[in-house]
Amino acid sequence: MDLQLTGKTAIVLAASRGLGKAAAMSLAAEGVDLVIGSRNMESLQQTAEQIRSLYGVRVVALAVDLSQAAQAEAFLKEAAGAFGKIDILVNNAGGPPFGKFESFDDQAWYQAFELTLMSAVRFIRLCIPYLRRSGSGRIINITSLSTKTYLENSVLSTSLRLAVTGMAKMLSNELGPDHITVNNVAPGIILTDRIRETLFHDLPAGMTQEQALQRRAGEIPVRRLGTPQELAALITFLASPLAGYITGTTIQVDGGAVKSPF
Ligand SMILES: NC(=O)c1ccc[n+]([C@@H]2O[C@H](COP(=O)([O-])OP(=O)(O)OC[C@H]3O[C@@H](n4cnc5c(N)ncnc54)[C@H](OP(=O)(O)O)[C@@H]3O)[C@@H](O)[C@H]2O)c1
Question: How is 26-70 classified by DSSP, letter by letter?
């Protein structure tokens, strides 16, 4: 299938590793030029170089702390100048910490608010003028399966990602006439550094990392964790002109982990 993405330009945030990196690589494989961002310039540059050498597309790497408003504006200014247009925005960021509701004070909530909700708000607002000019603008937010089902200890993430979900629905209506689609992709348990850190933290005595992975996999209908490439494939399709009639949705990539039929 030709996804008609060659020559498009995408911003992919939090793309030095994990899900963001996989999304950037998958878009690059379809001929999309990229501006990628995250805090650690060294690993971001390595990712940029890897993508250039594998796919031959143009990749600009810009350092950004997504929780900082001023940095978002500076990033967008450079990003917009890099190729003169923006067709696709993939909103992603590091996840807020896990923990029980009572373990988080106001400061923790404000930090999570900046990182998870306000980074998406700001990048969407900054990108809209460019996406309007694209004629097939795409906004794709990476959220979480916790927007569809209970996920232990995820109160910060779940609360703020549901705000992103609500915002995306509102925007799909407001931006539809401009041919801009707005969707959320909700990862289930996909093996990245974040999941390794969480799963391997406080392992019960005698349990190996492999056993912890198998135990988690046993709770998922397809009996395995997902790969970043499996989420990236959906993002890439949603980014394409072929997905122009899909908007305002949240699609999970979770091996069947969400039990609700809706
Ligand atoms: N993996 C899953 O199964 C899963 C499930 C549900 C939801 N999610 C969510 O999906 C998102 C990505 O997860 P992941 O598994 O890919 O995580 P990851 O492997 O830990 O990667 C996180 C990425 O975010 C960047 N980052 C973190 N804080 C940042 C900040 N303040 N500003 C800019 N960049 C920042 C990191 O780069 P730098 O360190 O260079 O900044 C890195 O590129 C997270 O929000 C996570 O909660 C993941």
Answer: HHHHTT-EEEEEES-HHHHHHHHHHHHHHH---EEEEE--TT-HH
95 C-alpha vs ligand 1 centroid, how far in Å? Answer: 5
* Fold held by 9-190+227-253: Rossmann fold (3.40.50)
Q: Is the CB of residue 250 below 6 angstroms from any atom belonging to ligand 1? A: no
Q: pLDDT tens digits for 146-200? A: 999 999 999 999 999 999 999 999 999 999 999 999 999 999 999 999 999 989 9
CA dist., res. 189 & res. 137, Å (int): 29
The DSSP 8-state label assigned to residue 146 in this structure reads: G
Q: How far is Cα 244 from Cα 80, in angstroms, rounded to an integer?
A: 23
| CB contact set of 45 (below 8 Å; sequence gap of 6+) | 61
Burial of 107 (C-beta count, 10 Å sphere; 0-12/13-18/19+):
exposed
Substitution candidate for ligand 1 out of 38, 76, 213 with most atoms within 8 A of CB: 38
Residue 231 in contact with ligand 1 by CB distance below 6 A? no
195 lines ligand 1 (CB under 6 A): yes
Verdict on whether the full-model pTM lies above 0.85:
yes
Q: Does the C-beta of 234 come closer than 6 Å to ligand 1? A: no
Among protein residues, the one whose CA lies closest to atom 8 of ligand 1: 144
Does the CA dihedral 184-188-191-195 come out positive or negative? Answer: positive
Ligand 1 close to Cβ of residue 92 (< 6 A): yes
Which percentage of the chain shows pLDDT scores above 90? 97
Domain locations in the chain?
9-190+227-253, 192-225
Tell me, in angstroms, the distance from the centre of ligand 1 to residue 20's CA: 7
